[in-house]
Specification:
Blueprint (H helix, E strand, L loop, with lengths): L3 H16 L8 H15 L2 H5 L4 E5 L8 E7 L2 E11 L18 H15 L3 H9 L2 E3 L3 H19 L5 E9 L7 H15 L4 E7 L3 E2 L9 E3 L1 E2 L1 E10 L14 H12 L7 E3 L2 E3 L3 E7 L11 E10 L4 H28 L15 E4 H11 L3 H13 L6 H16 L5 E6 L7 E2 L6 H16 L4 E3 L16 H9 L21 E4 L2 E3 L7 E3 H20 L2
Parallel strand pairs: 3-5, 3-6, 6-19, 7-20, 8-18, 15-16
Antiparallel strand pairs: 1-2, 2-5, 4-21, 8-19, 9-17, 10-14, 10-16, 11-12, 13-14, 20-21
């Protein structure tokens, strides 16, 4: 068993090696990363002696044939701990003239320091990088330092011939897009491990946390993670000539009121166990006119990032419906008040009195009732959209929502609520078997041994792949699926088989500014503390 210094050195070496291999999501480099990683892992003596314990699992979708990499180090007993993380990264164009250095942290640090010294600004980043306590690099924080810690612990476990329990290392692509890698792993891993006589006692996700302060909120073990829903609204107005705008209802105006109502709305924020999920923010808003004329916009499309801690999808839609009603009533009152101030007030048409609020599943049911051939046409359109790789999920959902509305026979003005992307279920570690107590005890021991403050929180405040491995409410997933137009075409996920339901925690590095050219990892924690913490938490679960 290597000592702590050797474990730290190995974690650092692995992190720099993994970062030097480009792996931008959706590129040939991402697909090629699995082979390079399998080659690195396979060179270890354990896997030379046990080549069947290193597996490459195909991931459906994508143009280049991506793979998950699974490495199993078997010990005594049936219990196993999963060490999981993604190897894809976001693009490097934001580095500008330094983008060729994005994969080489030491050289990149020098280049960024010189750039910041010459240009000014970003004082915190400059201080961090001058200090030597932080190291930049695309993916070094998000999340190849976490993967490196997991790999170093896996190798240490393999060096102990009497090790208790098994460790399973999993590296996946596509986390930065649709989590195709982790969803494929969630399907395949339970059977693969059961075939080896293994039962997962705990999954440790190795993803990163951002902290712009002293690191206190980054040095944490998270006993779960928040969830995410991409709330969508199709706004349906009533078109009118711009000289007679009150003959109709301007969808752009309704959309603006909705944006103001939902943006950071406390009603869609959520608190639990003294922790809060950030209220929603808009990720897109536009009217759907495709050419200029003097007709008011008839439709608009809005999407919001909604984070959840325990709130089900059906409740998110119900709360959003209340906000939509408030926004449309304010829109009507504002127009009426402004019209009344004119010398010859124009009347508001009857359209202003018939606002409707619908869920997507209700509109689709209306379309089915109005047109027996609707389902066949809808499914053909959904399949066609699924084959267009250049269309993102929200665009596909918008197209299908409009198709359902057009076939429904309903009239505007109205809003149609739904979801426009893959849901990420919230994960919470269940108690009752002493697992949480053992994790807390192991965390405290590492904190004391390293002289580092390490906290324990209920849920990681960011969206991560572990959502697909933890316990998932099938009924909640069914509700989300019914209101996500691309479910069954672009999203292949059976709500009746939501996932393995393993207890999950997150133990990862911390740093600042990930998804940014100033992305940097805190070096002493990532390499000196994190591998010891991962190993301690894993052993605590295996010893249960």
């Amino acid at each position: 068993m290597p000592d702590d210094a050797a474990l730290a050195d190995r974690a650092r070496d692995l992190a720099l090696t993994l970062t030097s291999w480009p792996s931008v999501t959706g590129t040939a480099d991402e697909a090629g990363f699995a082979g390079r990683l399998a080659g690195l892992v396979g060179a270890h003596p354990y896997f030379r002696d046990n080549p069947g314990d290193l597996i490459r699992l195909p991931v459906p979708g994508g143009p280049y044939g991506r793979e998950n990499v699974v490495a199993v180090v078997r010990g005594r007993g049936r219990r196993a701990v999963l060490l999981a993380g993604h190897y894809d990264v976001v693009p490097v164009d934001d580095y500008g003239p330094l983008k060729d250095l994005a994969w080489h942290p030491e050289r990149l640090r020098q280049g960024i320091v010189a750039r910041l010294e010459a240009g000014g600004g970003h004082e915190l980043a400059l201080d961090d990088l001058r200090s030597g306590g932080f190291l930049p690099g695309r993916g070094l924080l998000d999340m190849k330092s976490g993967l490196a810690a997991g790999l170093a612990v896996l190798e240490a476990h393999a060096a102990d011939p009497e090790c208790l329990g098994s460790l399973v290392f999993l590296a996946t692509p596509d986390e930065e897009d649709r989590s195709a890698g982790m969803r494929a792993a969630a399907e395949a891993l339970p059977g693969l491990l059961a075939g080896r006589g293994l039962e997962v006692a705990l999954g440790i996700n190795l993803d990163a946390v951002s902290d712009q302060g002293d690191g206190a909120s980054g040095r944490v073990v998270a006993l779960g993670c928040i969830g995410k829903l991409l709330l969508s609204v199709l706004v349906v107005g009533v078109e009118a000539h711009a000289c007679y705008p009150l003959d109709g209802v301007n969808a752009a105006h309704l959309a603006a009121e909705l944006l103001a109502e939902v943006e950071f709305a406390p009603e869609l924020g959520e608190e639990a166990d003294g922790e809060a999920a950030v209220p929603p923010t808009a990720l897109g808003a536009r009217d759907l006119k495709t050419l200029y004329n003097v007709t008011t916009p008839g439709r608009a499309w809005l999407i919001w990032n909604v984070l959840t801690k325990a709130r089900p999808a059906s409740e998110v839609l119900a709360v959003a419906a209340g906000l939509a009603l408030r926004a449309t009533e304010r829109a009507r009152a504002r127009i009426a008040e402004r019209a009344a101030r004119l010398q010859n007030p124009p009347p508001l048409t009857g359209a202003w009195a018939r606002f409707g609020t619908w869920r997507f599943e209700e509109v689709r049911a209306r379309a089915r009732a109005a047109d027996p051939g609707f389902d066949a046409r809808f499914e053909a359109l959904a399949a066609d959209l699924a084959g267009q790789a250049d269309l993102d999920l929200p665009t596909r959902c918008r197209t299908l929502t409009e198709a359902a509305w057009d076939a429904s026979g309903l009239e505007g003005p109205a809003v149609v609520l739904g979801f426009a992307s893959m849901p990420y279920p919230a994960v919470r570690l269940a108690g009752g078997d002493g697992l949480e107590a053992r994790i807390r005890r192991a965390t405290a021991e590492v904190a004391a041994a390293t002289g580092t403050d390490i906290g324990v929180v209920r849920q990681l405040p960011v969206i991560v792949d572990m959502s697909f491995l933890g316990p998932i409410d099938a009924a909640d997933l069914t509700a989300a699926a019914a209101n996500t137009p691309v479910w069954g075409s672009s999203i292949d996920w059976d709500p009746a088989r939501p996932g393995p339901g393993w207890p999950m925690v997150n133990v990862g590095p911390w740093g600042r500014d990930y998804h940014h050219w100033l992305e940097r990892v805190h070096v002493p924690y990532a390499f000196g503390v994190l591998p010891r913490l991962v190993r301690a938490v894993a052993l605590a679960a295996l010893e249960g």
